[in-house]
Amino acid sequence: MDVKGRSAVVTGAAGGIGAALARELGSRGARVLLADIDPAVAQTAEGLGQAQWTGDVASAAGVTGLLDAARSQLGEVDLYFANAGIGGASGLGDDEDWDAVLDVNLRAHIRAAQRLIPDWTARGTGYFVATASAAGLLTQIGSAGYSVTKHAALAFAEWLSVTYGDDGVRVSVLAPMGVDTKILWGDPDNPKTGDALAAQKAVSEAGGVLDPEDVARTVLDAVEQEEFLILPHPEVLDMYRMKGADYDRWLTGMRRYQAKLRTIVKDA
Question: Mind telling me which PANTHER family this protein's record contains (predicted)?
Fold first, then answer.
C-alpha cells in the first residue's frame, strides 16, 4: 500500500513510536490524526501540522469518539495504527492491573477493529497495524500482564489477517525489542526496582535500543510491502525459531536468564 494521499490514525502518538510513526506517515504524504490520552499530543500534532484527538482509546466510547473525529477531519480512515500501550504491573498484578493492561494493550485493538472492519470490507481496502512487542513472540521477564497482552495482540492481528485478508484488509504487527521510549525506561523520578528493573534490563541488554524514528521507517517500509511481521530487531526471528525448536530447553534458558538478572538487580 502506498500511503501517499491516504488517511491514517495513530494512537499513543504524543511521543515515542506513535509520534515517530505520525511524522514518517506525514513525510510520505499521508494525512494523519494523532491520538493519545496525554494532552501533549496536541503539541506534537501541531508541530507536525496534523490533526489531533485527546482521549482514552482503550474504552469503547473513546474508540467511537476517535473514529468519529477522524472521519470528520480526514474522511474515511485508510490506515489505523493501534500503537497505544502500557507496561503493566510487575509480577502477577491484581485485578485492577489486569483490567488496565488488557484494555490498553488488547481490547483497544479489538474495539477499533470492530468499528473499522465492516467499512473496510465493504470498500475492499483498509490497513490495521498493531504494535505488539518481541514479548508477543517470546515472553517478558517480570510482567505477566505485558507478556500475555502482547501475545494476544499479535494473535488478534494474525486472526484479522487470516479472516479478512481476502476481503482487502491488510494487517501488520510490529514486534520490536528495545526502543528508546518511556515504556522502556519509565519515570526517571521514580526509577524501577526489583522485577521491574529486571524486566527493563532483559529488554535493553538483549539487543540494541533503537530510536523511534528508525522503527517508524522500518514499519512504513513494511506496510508499503504489505508484510505481516515487522521485526526492527531481526535477531528476534532467530530467538523465536529456537523457542519453537525446543520449547523445554528455551524455558530452562529463560529461567536461568531471569535468575541472572535478579542477581544483578539485587547486587546493584
Answer: 5-KETO-D-GLUCONATE 5-REDUCTASE, ALCOHOL DEHYDROGENASE, PUTATIVE (AFU_ORTHOLOGUE AFUA_3G03445)-RELATED
